[in-house]
Design a protein that fits this description.
Blueprint (H helix, E strand, L loop, with lengths): L7 E5 L6 H10 L4 E4 L10 H6 L7 E4 L2 E4 L1 H11 L14 H28 L5 H23 L13 H11 L12 H11 L2 H10 L10
Parallel strand pairs: 1-2
Antiparallel strand pairs: 1-3, 3-4
Helix pairs in contact: 1-3, 1-6, 1-8, 4-5, 4-6, 5-7
The structure holds glutathione.
The site of glutathione (GSH) has 12 residues, from helix 4.
InterPro entries: Glutathione-S-Trfase_C-like (IPR010987), Glutathione-S-Trfase_C_sf (IPR036282), Glutathione_S-Trfase (IPR040079), Glutathione_S-Trfase_N (IPR004045), Thioredoxin-like_sf (IPR036249)
Keywords: Transferase
Pfam families: GST_C_2, GST_N_2
């Protein structure tokens, strides 16, 4: 039986790391509340929000009244709580190891490089920000090379030729490259993959709910 999904409240900022979780909640078709935390306006530092997320970051997902954090962990948790949606390979299945490997790669290789690219000047010494950003770019280019080769010309999804949590995370991260020196759309297999994932009605709904107009198939 599906769980009582009204126990979810997503704290999000448009286009931020909350986007993958928001997308998955929509794709799952569960009901949930959403609360805007505008990070451009600094709302992540409001005392009320810091009580839910002391790091002052989005996303936070309230699950049965408890604040939970970390986008990749939240995707895994949602897959576990909604097995009927089959958005993660079952434990012991052929694709499980590849899925775990991909989720960890997205979380501990691509996401930190993205953080360095966007926050080098505020997380670290602004005087060294340019070098940090250059390294982040090199790391991200290598990651896109890897994922482009992984998809090849014939795979539409990252794992097991079916939609999984890895795709919500990967497409969100690829979206963040749109104004970078080498946007992910410049890799041929990534471009095909992105266009195919962006065509999902849930992605259109996600953009509408977050008020986002950039980086949609209609404008490509
Ligand atoms: N590892 C965290 C990263 C969260 C994160 O860095 N979120 C950014 C937005 S993409 C944020 O909240 N930035 C606001 C700030 O750092 O002040 C996750 O995956 O949830």
């Amino acid at each position: 039986m599906p769980r009582d999904s009204t126990s979810y409240v997503l704290y999000y900022s448009p286009g931020a790391a909350s986007m993958a979780v928001h997308w998955m909640l929509i794709e799952l078709g569960v009901s949930f509340e959403s609360q805007l935390i505008d990070i451009d306006a600094g709302r992540q530092h409001d005392p009320a929000y810091l009580r839910l997320n002391p790091a002052g970051r989005v996303p936070t997902l309230m699950v049965d009244g408890t604040p939970r954090h970390e986008s990749v962990a939240l995707l895994i948790l949602l897959a576990e709580r909604h097995p009927e949606a089959a958005l993660a390979p079952e434990p012991g299945s052929v694709d499980r190891a590849a899925w775990l490997e991909m989720m960890v790669y997205l979380a501990n290789t691509i996401l930190p490089a993205m953080r360095d690219w966007f926050y080098a000047g505020s997380d670290g010494d602004p005087a060294g920000a340019e070098a940090v950003r250059a390294l982040a770019c090199r790391r991200l280019d290598a990651a896109w090379d890897k994922l482009d080769a992984h998809l090849g010309e014939s795979h539409d999804y990252l794992i097991g030729d079916k939609l999984s949590t890895a795709d919500f995370m990967a497409v969100m991260l690829m979206r963040w490259t749109r104004n970078m020196p080498r946007p992910a759309l410049g890799w041929p297999n990534l471009a095909r993959y992105i266009r195919q994932l962006r065509a999902r009605p849930s992605f259109t709904e996600l953009n509408a709910r977050e008020g986002l107009t950039e980086w949609r198939n209609e404008e490509a």
